[in-house]
Amino acid sequence: MKPQPDFSLSTSTTSISLSAGGPAQSVTVTAAAVNGFSGPINVTVTGVPAEVTATPSVFTLNAGSSQAVSFSAASSAAAAGATVQFQGVAGGSSHNVSSPILVSPVVVLNRTDWITYHFDNARTGLNPNEIQLAPSLVTSSRFGLLRILPVDGKVDAQPLYLSQLMVGQQPHNVVFAVSEHGSVYAFEADTGYQVWHTSILGPGETPSDDHGCGQISPEIGITSTPVIDRKAGPKGTIFVVGMSEDSSGGYHQRLHALDVITGREVAGSPVEIHATYPGSGAGSSNGQVIFDPGQYAERAGLLLMNGVLYLGFTSHCDENPYTGWLMAYSESTLKQTSVLNLTPNGSEGSIWMAGGGLAADSSGNIYFLDANGSFDTTLNSKGFPTQGDLGNGFIKVSTAHGELSVADYFEPFDTVDLSNSDVDLGSGGVIVLPDQTDASGKTRHLAVGAGKNQTIYLVDRENMGKFNPNGNSAIYQEVDGAIGGVWSKPAYFNGTVYYGAVDDTLKAFPFTKAKLPASPAAQSANSFPYPGTIPSVSALNATNGIVWAVENSSPAVLHAYAAKTLQELYNSNQAPNGRDHFGDGNKFIAPAIADGKVFVGTPSGVAEFGSLK
């Protein structure tokens, strides 16, 4: 039987990107003959968002001919994401071709990116450039849940955000999310439209199982917060560490570099993560400690500093053998440049920090808290452990000359007992604080951290205190009993440190002459169940300070507090009929705030809050 004549349609672009009041974008529609087709084809354009014009919207094509269709958005056009259809009809045949269309609203100046865990490498959790969120506007009548951005697994990492990213020919505000199913997503923040989705799993691979450990469960794909460099690649690169399991039961840890516009792997990506380090500790062989990818998870947020990516690894619960690993990779080549093991002749001492990012100062030093593990109480002449084992410590690592090396540290006097009792520092994260001036007028370079023992440790970054079995007198300041156990990390704004410990209120500790008070100056009316809360702060310089905190409950609750008093401005339970409910809680979640919106990771996506106008 002779095939029937038919036709096909195609377009010159895969997507249409417009800004309100901005230039038009032209799309060429072409008709082609199939099996000797001839005759006119009537084409209609449908699915165009409100206040967007397609010219012409109806036209006729002949086989082999083309028609340019111009799309433009009025200056009053709202943000939108849709799919435009070009439908052709001729005789008894009908065919169509589609193109996604994104519309961005009028550009607002002073937009801000959120490209790393807790906003900056100091891990302050502060966005100081938020012009749209004032305390008077954050009420249940004016602010609330806008949408849920769905993904294919748990979101344990903090969402990231790029403002005015050029997608196609127009700028868009894009939020990035990663899942424990091994996926990376980019969404248009003003519409919720999915820009792209990439799986980092290799052929035939699945996310890792949870190794019988409930800390990251039921699967392990991408756990840590990625980092973005807008200057890497044509438009920017997002760096991600993912874990997977192949069909033979082998585990993989890989570092990926993805183009922020397309989600595609860049040249040289991904790379398998392998490492060895001299030592006789857990998991060693022939004088080398060996990194076994199945024994570890990458929980702490990635650090990008001076063109180098830094990765810290933790264990699955306390399943031995494992040690503490810190690794460095070139941002441009993805080649490993240096490795440091924190317990090379002992065991444990992993980098966990409830997902908190490795922190850094302007001199290129890295700071973190490592978990329970071996510590050598015998010290050399410089005050360092003779075997190099630094479990349960507040650690400073130098990156000078491209090499990772321990430059300084602090260990509590009872560190061995704390490790043996699993009451370690590693459950909390670190902030590298802005300079403080003490009572004598001296400038102090400080960092703050706390763990499970209900003590805030304030260290002088120039002399952290090392170890003294007779007491902690060498530390800059120790604040005992002012907070509960910490399975989170603090935030900083306007001279104040904010902590949200387990079964404790959110508390504000303002500096006075470079010292913290023995008790908080303000605290929230409500308390937070396990694991406490990781606050983030939005402000406009030193004004309009709002502290945002997520309660790990069912349903989860987003709270907003006035920064000075911690009086509540809003919570997501206030609106009637559960309008702002966004699902069950998820531990170790820190909100990200940018351009008037607040993004919160959930067990199945990202909740996006903002103005309800």
Summarize the structure.
The protein has 613 residues and is an all-beta fold. It has 1 helix and 50 strands.
Work out the number of β strands. Answer: 50
Query: Which stretches are poorly predicted, pLDDT < 50 over at least 5 residues?
Result: none
Oligomer: single chain
What shape does the CA trace take? Answer: globular
Share in helix = under 10%
- Main beta sheet, described? 6 strands, antiparallel
Radius of gyration, taken over Cα atoms and rounded to an integer in Å: 27 Å
Task: Give the CA-CA distance, first to last residue.
Answer: 61 Å
The number of distinct helices, counting runs of at least 4 residues, comes to: 1
The whole-number mean of residue pLDDT values reads: 95
Please report which band the strand proportion falls in: under 5%, 5-15%, 15-25%, 25-35%, 35-45% or over 45%. 35-45%
Give the structural class: mainly beta
Any overview of this molecule?
- With 613 residues, the chain is mostly beta strands.
- The protein has one helix and 50 strands.
- The strands form twelve sheets. Strands 16, 17, 18, 19, 20 and 21 form a six-stranded antiparallel beta sheet that branches. Strands 2-9-8-4-6 form a five-stranded mixed beta sheet, with no helix packed on it.
- Strand 41 and strand 42 form a beta hairpin.
- The longest helix is centred in the last third of the chain and has 6 residues.
- The radius of gyration is 27 Å and the shape is globular.
- The N and C termini lie far apart (61 Å).
- The model has no long low-confidence stretch (mean pLDDT 95).
